[in-house]
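User: Here's a structure from my thesis project, written as structure tokens. My advisor, Dr. K., wants to see whether a designed sequence matches the one we expressed. Can you design one independently, without my sequence as a hint?
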């Protein structure tokens, strides 16, 4: 439901900006869509929500694909090109009848299978318990309503795009729970040899979204991260430059290390590589086993 909603929203935006672009949505199910039961952290490989779309692109069955950037591995398929369209609120959303993270009862059961979220929430609330949560957004909300969990954690961006912003109990401060690389960003992907189409897609993309996505994905690449490892990043505009924050941790120990950089936009990719080194060194000094 979310992927379909996002795709149609993107098509409306593209048609408004480029009247000559006559695009229609096509539904393609990915491995991540088909397996709604296995925890994402237990599924092998990367690109669980991407590879089938890239294969369809390369076969010429579709002209371009719409992705949630947080699902896109840092190595996309050869022959493809990625564009960063726009960003919604990148923060994580706590959904709970108790109202906030601090108000959750002692030992509350939280629905999430994300090692990134578990590591950071355990660091903030060591008493919490966690259980895997799969399914589309509507299914996850129903599981909360049935009383299976005291709280669940979702992305703010998805709830906002579905029109369910009122379900958000608390937008988690990134100082508590730093989001996933690229969270909230919608990305477009087409074949490299479709030069004219690439120019038309690139023309509707936001330059600042491109800058923050590049910074976050540079850190992702340097850390070698995926959905199986507790890693996070958030780049945000700051005057003429960027602030980049990163996190690495261990979800079994509930321990994390963090780092921050601020500087000019062109320096961000190099600063992200240096940040990855600092995060690994600090984790080693503090005895935190990453991953």
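Assistant: Designed independently from the structure alone:
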């Amino acid at each position: 439901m979310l992927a379909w909603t996002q795709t149609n929203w993107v098509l409306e935006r593209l048609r408004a900006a480029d009247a000559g672009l006559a695009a229609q949505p096509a539904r393609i199910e990915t491995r991540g869509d088909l397996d709604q039961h296995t925890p994402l952290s237990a599924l092998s490989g990367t690109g669980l929500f991407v590879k089938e779309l890239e294969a369809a692109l390369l076969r010429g069955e579709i002209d371009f694909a719409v992705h949630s950037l947080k699902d896109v591995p840092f190595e996309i398929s050869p022959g493809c090109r990625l564009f960063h369209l726009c960003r919604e609120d990148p923060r994580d959303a706590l959904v709970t009848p108790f109202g906030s993270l601090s108000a959750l009862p002692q030992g509350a059961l939280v629905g999430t299978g994300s090692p990134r979220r578990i590591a950071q929430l355990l660091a903030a609330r060591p008493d919490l318990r966690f259980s895997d949560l799969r399914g589309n957004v509507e299914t996850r909300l129903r599981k909360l309503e049935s009383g299976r969990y005291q709280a669940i954690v979702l992305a703010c961006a998805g709830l906002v795009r579905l029109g369910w912003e009122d379900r958000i109990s608390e937008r988690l401060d990134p100082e508590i729970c730093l989001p996933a690389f690229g969270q909230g960003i919608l990305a477009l992907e087409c074949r490299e040899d479709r030069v004219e189409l690439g120019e038309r897609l690139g023309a509707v993309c936001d330059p600042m979204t491109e800058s923050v996505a590049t910074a976050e994905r540079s850190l992702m690449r340097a850390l070698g991260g995926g959905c199986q490892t507790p890693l996070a990043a958030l780049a945000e505009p700051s005057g003429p430059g960027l602030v980049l924050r990163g996190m690495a941790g261990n979800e079994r120990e509930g321990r994390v290390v963090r780092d921050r950089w601020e500087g000019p936009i062109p320096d961000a990719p190099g600063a992200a590589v240096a940040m990855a080194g600092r995060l690994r060194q600090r984790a080693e000094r503090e005895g935190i086993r990453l991953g």
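When you compare it with your expressed construct, this may help: The first helix runs from residue 2 to 17.
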